[in-house]
Each structure stands twice: as structure tokens, then as C-alpha cells.
Amino acid sequence: MSAAVPLSQLPQSRSAQIHVLFSGYVGPHTASTVTFIRDGDTLAIVDPGMAPTREDILRPLGALGVAADAISDVVFSHHHPDHTLNAALFPRARFHDHWAIYQGDLWTDRPADGYELSPSVRLLATPGHTPQDITTLIGTGEGIAACTHLWWSEKGPPEDPFATDSAVLHANRERVLSIPNLYLIIPGHGAPFTPSTATPR
């Protein structure tokens, strides 16, 4: 049985807006799902990884009236290149992973678990795919959304063939699915979906 996410580690506000800039996929070609989050002055990108071209990320961002150099924060769900390759598109951002924040020549150690990126955005340690995976929890007016690589897409896969620890991955799926008011999962390589009893656990 997996432990529930403490309420103190959930977003304390519900003011964020989410826009999926690019829906990823896996196959002969691979791309990550790239998400933009707006919460007040925090303008964040999650997983600026592989895409057919850089414009596939920048064009939809520009359509929202946001320039690449306005992005304040970038979150890596983990350090596989298909999720990090286009990080340099955002030159002014702070970069967040499982154990630190990086900006310019400054490396600030901190555990990701429970870290508050903004009042509506929290990071959660969710290893399994890799030991360093994190999930970004976003509080919106509709509920809580999760950007995560615990699922590649709505169909799972039920067993992640590249998971470094399948038992931990399944426990963290259960943990995320137990979050109150979870209404949306934004997976690593697919379109957002609403969790249901059919969601692989």
C-alpha cells in the first residue's frame, strides 16, 4: 500500500493556468509532452525535450503572448534527453530537478519533494521510471493536474519497459491517483487525460 501524499505537499492555491504546447509520442520518432504553466509572475515550462523542431515549442508559446526569455522556471521530470533537449530555449529560467535549482553559475541544493515553485505549483518526488523522477502538481480552478512520467500516455503502458524500479513506479502511480481533486494527468509522451478506473496503476 502506498502512502498518501501529505496535504502539506499539495498546491495550496488553485490559481494556475495550464497549456500543453506539444503532445509527445514514442515510436520510430520520439518527442516529449511540453507544458506551459502560468501562476501569477511564475511562467514555467515542464519537460522542454525533443520535438520535430524548436518552433513546435516556441510557436504555441508565442501564441499565448509569452516570449521564451520571459520563462521564469523550467522543470525536468527526469534527465533523459528526450525531456531536456530544448532547455536552452529559455535563457533566463531557473532549472529544477530532483535535488537542486540551477541558474547561471549558481547551484542551490534542495530536495524536490514538496518544493513550492509558486502558490499553485508543487514538486513531488515520484521515482520509478528513474530514481530521480519528479511530478509537477498544479492547482487550477478545475482541480489538481499532474505533469508526470509515471505514465507515458493514457494507456500506460501498464508496465514501463525502461523503469528502474517497477514496484516503486506502481506505488507512486497509486500515490498520485489518490490525490484529492486530481482531474488531469499530463503524461510524458502523450495528450492529457482524465484519470479513471481504467488508468494503469
Characterization of this structure:
The protein is mainly beta and 201 residues long. The mean pLDDT is 96. The radius of gyration is 15 Å and the shape is globular. Helix 1 (55-63) links the parallel strand 3 (42-46) and strand 4 (73-75). The protein has a single domain, classed as Metallo-beta-lactamase, Chain A, CATH 3.60.15.10. The protein contains two helices and twelve strands. The strands form two sheets. The protein has a seven-stranded mixed beta sheet with strand order 1-2-3-4-5-6-7, covered by helices on one side. 10% of the residues lie in helices and 28% in strands. The protein starts with 16 loop residues before the first strand and ends in a 15-residue tail after the last strand.
